[in-house]
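anyone seen this seq b4? input:
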Amino acid sequence: MSFAAVIFDFFATLTPGTPEHVWQEHTARSAAPLGLDVATWRRALDESWAERATGALGDLPATFRELARRNGVVPDDQALAAACAARRTAQDELFVFRPDALAVLAKIRARGLKVGVLSDCTVELAEAWSLLPVARLVDVRVLSCEAGRRKPDPVLFATVAGQLGVAPQHCLYLGDGGGRELSGASAAGMHAVMLRAADWYTNSAHAREDDWAGPWVPTLSAVLPLLAEGRRRAGGAPAGDAGVGSVRSCPPILRLVPTMPAVPRRGRPPRHNRSEILDAASEVMIFRGYGATRYSDVAEASGVPVASLQHHFPTLAVLRREALRNKVRAELTSLAEQVSVIADPWERVSHIIVRSVSLDPARRRGGWVLWLEYYRAAAHDQALAEDSREVSAQWLSLIADSIADGVQTGQFHPDGTVAEAAQELHGLLDGLGIRLAIEHDDADAADAITLLERSARRMLRLA
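predicted toks r here
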């Protein structure tokens, strides 16, 4: 299946995501001139989202006047104008685009494909549209506040495809999942792909499809290979998915198989999934630690009887070792698959940094605890020590390949060799990441990412 058009969501897709604290601060700005407390005004905005997103309350002054009235306030013209000005300024701050957004749109158009935007939004975006840099790169825009409908209304998807002059089955739809847009696009016959960027976890969105099981990409740039090669497997896509073929299925960079042979046992072996057992064991290790993990803990977590666990793993040492190996390889393979579809070398380096640190609090702390347990165990286990050297080599290769591509294209100009730059970045990641294994604020992770990206830019002398 070839594509003739790409349709983008606007907020948290073409633009970065917006965390809750930003919405709260923006709310405070427009609440003040109206004499309303922030909580009351935020509730008024949230409860009126459906009306505002479909243009039911009129332009911005009419909308704010009505919402103030609902909360017992009749603002004078000066107060209303100040509140509207504060809202427009706050919204303008959200009309900032991802670093690769304009380049991706231009590349899509250069390939002869059409570009559409379908957004659930309020009137401020419609008012500002002609002044935005994306306007000249978009063939058709359909905004909910003008159409009088919200996602996942099928009329919206039919409208944007119709105005583009492209049949839905030849449209690729990309969004973060807000408003259940991906299900809506799929139901309309489009090939829906989620943009799960690094800021996806902290973005605050209405009715987002956090349970989306279809294809996804980590950056806007990663959508380009889907257009070039048609039906390929995307990260996270289920086997046999008949939608967009997604990101290519590349082989694991490290083998995802047991490194200890199963010990022959008498009788019929129990029917249990070895990989699921190892996943459960690794989760137990995050909470109990490598040395304190027992058969009974893994049995409780996996639902597999102790006797069956002992059939697969005759000693606790084997179970613990295999669980660590399996989990570490799975994490590394997943990252390699994501990086493999990102064309821009700097975007690849940045993704390695962001994904390694992680903006998901539970995944971040658990992940770094697991790596600490892995290296701590390797210090006393020769088999794991050898394994850790292989893992480190693969990590360095993943980073070095991205840097080498940047050097080749003239984007990077490191002082030393590619291998030295990879070693340095790898060391910085480990050094800052180890602190995230203990309890910390989310801001610490964001600071680590900022510091790592700044250091990487300086180290690689990014052009």
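The radius of gyration is 25 Å. Residues 229-271 have pLDDT under 50 and may be disordered. kinda curious what u guys think
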